[in-house]
Specification:
Blueprint (H helix, E strand, L loop, with lengths): L2 H4 L3 H11 L3 E9 L5 H9 L17 E6 L3 E7 L9 H16 L2 E7 L6 H11 L6 E6 L6 H17 L6 E4 L8 H8 L20 H14 L6 H4 L1 E9 L10 E9 L5 H5 L4 H18 L3 E9 L7 H6 L3
Parallel strand pairs: 1-3, 1-4, 4-5, 5-6, 8-9
Antiparallel strand pairs: 2-3, 7-8
Helix pairs in contact: 8-11
The structure holds guanosine-5'-triphosphate and magnesium ion (MG).
Magnesium ion (MG) binds next to helix 3.
Length: 324
C-alpha cells in the first residue's frame, strides 16, 4: 500500500459511504386537519403540482401519491384528505381512506399549521396516531411563514408536549413553509433514513401514479372551487367522460378533445357554477385548460357540462358513480 492511499481522504470516504449506503424507498403519508397545507407540501416536495389545493377545507378527496426521486432514496408521499368529523357519507368514506392509509405507510407526517391553535381536532388525530406504535411519526409545523419566531417556538413546544402527554416521542419535529420553500428539502432529508432499504418502487421520472383522467378532473375541480362560497365547494364533483385525439388533424397540430361533467347537488346550484351568461363556467374552462395542456403537453379542446347528481355526498349509489 503506498503512502498516498494510506492518508485519510475524507472526500473519498464520503464517496464510498455514498456508494455503499443502501438505497431506501417507501411511503410517507401526510395527515392533519383540513386546510393544514398537506397537498401544498406534497407538491413542494415533488416539485410539481400532483395534488390540487385551495383555501377551502376538504379539498383533497382521495389519496394522491407524489414521488420524490433522490440518489439515495425514493420517497412516495401519500397526501390524504383532511381528517374531520364526518357529516355526510362522503365524509365517512374520506376518513376511512385516511385511516387505511396510515396503517400501511412507513412514516407518518402529522401536519399542524403554525398559525392555528393546537385544538381538539388535532388532539383527536394525534391520539389515534399514538396507537400506531410501530410507525415513526414526524410533527410538521406547516405555514411557518405566517408567524413570528416566538409563536413558532410555542407551536413546536405544544406539539412536543402533546406527544409526551400521549406517551410517545416524535421522531422529528420540524417547521416548514411550502409556499416560501423553507426547510422543504430538509424534511425530505429527515424522512429518507426512516424508509426501509429497497430499490426504487417507481420508474425514474414518474412524479405520481394518478391516472391522467383523474388529474384532469382534479384540475377542473380546482378551477371550479375558486371563488365559490359556503357549502358549494363540497357539492362539486368532476368526472372526465372521454379524452380522445381529434381525428383528421395534421401531425404537427394535434388536438385532444376532453369531455367532462361538473356535478353539483341541487338544481339551485347550477346558476352559481355557470354564472351570468355562462361567464363563470367559461372561466373555469379557460383556467383549467391551461393547466391541463401543461400537464399533458398537448393543445386541448375542453367541453364542460354542468349536471345535477341529487345529494350525491349522501347517496351510496351516486358516490360509486362519482368514483368514491
Ligand atoms: N402562507 C402559507 N400558506 C400555505 C402554505 N401551505 C399551504 N398554504 C395555504 O393553505 C391553504 C390550504 O392548503 P392545502 O394544501 O390545500 O391544504 P390541505 O391540508 O391539503 O387541505 P385538505 O385537502 O382540504 O385537507 C391553501 O390556501 C394554501 O395556499 C404555506 O407554507 N404558507
Ligand atoms: Mg389537500
Amino acid at each position: 500500500m503506498g503512502a498516498m492511499s494510506a492518508r485519510p481522504n475524507p472526500e473519498a470516504a464520503a464517496q464510498q459511504a455514498e456508494n455503499t449506503a443502501p438505497h431506501r424507498a417507501g411511503f410517507a403519508c401526510f395527515v392533519g386537519r383540513p386546510n393544514a397545507g398537506k397537498s401544498t407540501l406534497t407538491n413542494a416536495l415533488v416539485g410539481q403540482k400532483v395534488a390540487i389545493t385551495s383555501n377551502r377545507p376538504q379539498t383533497t378527496r382521495h389519496t394522491v401519491r407524489g414521488i420524490v426521486h433522490r440518489p439515495d432514496a425514493q420517497l412516495i408521499l401519500v397526501d390524504t384528505p383532511g381528517l374531520h368529523k364526518p357529516r355526510t357519507l362522503l365524509g365517512e368514506r374520506l376518513n376511512d381512506v385516511v385511516r387505511t392509509t396510515w396503517a400501511e405507510v412507513d412514516v407518518i407526517g402529522f401536519c399542524l399549521p403554525a398559525d392555528q391553535k393546537l385544538g381538539p381536532g388535532d388532539k383527536y388525530i394525534v391520539k389515534e396516531l399514538a396507537g400506531i406504535k410501530k410507525t415513526p411519526k414526524i410533527a410538521i409545523i406547516t405555514k411557518s411563514d405566517l408567524v413570528e419566531s416566538k409563536q413558532l417556538a410555542e407551536q413546536l413546544l405544544a406539539v412536543s408536549r402533546l406527544g409526551e402527554e400521549l406517551g410517545f416521542e416524535w421522531a422529528e419535529i420540524i417547521p416548514v413553509s411550502a409556499v416560501k420553500d423553507d426547510q422543504v428539502g430538509l424534511l425530505a432529508d429527515l424522512i429518507a433514513p426512516l424508509l426501509p432499504e429497497s430499490p426504487p418502487l417507481y420508474p425514474e421520472g414518474d412524479l405520481t401514479d394518478e391516472p391522467e383522467m383523474v388529474m384532469v378532473a382534479e384540475l377542473i375541480r380546482e378551477a371550479a372551487l375558486e371563488g365559490v362560497r359556503d357549502e358549494l365547494p363540497h357539492s362539486i364533483a368532476v368526472v372526465v367522460e372521454e379524452m380522445l385525439p381529434r381525428e383528421d388533424r395534421p401531425a404537427d397540430k394535434p388536438l385532444l378533445d376532453i369531455h367532462a361533467n361538473v356535478y353539483i347537488e341541487r338544481p339551485s346550484q347550477k346558476g352559481i357554477i355557470i354564472g351570468p351568461k355562462g361567464k363563470r363556467l367559461k372561466e373555469v374552462g379557460t383556467k383549467s385548460r391551461k393547466h391541463i395542456e401543461a400537464l399533458l403537453g398537448t393543445p386541448v379542446f375542453l367541453d364542460l357540462h354542468v349536471k345535477v347528481a341529487k345529494d350525491w355526498q349522501r347517496d351510496p349509489k351516486q358516490l360509486r358513480k362519482l368514483g368514491f
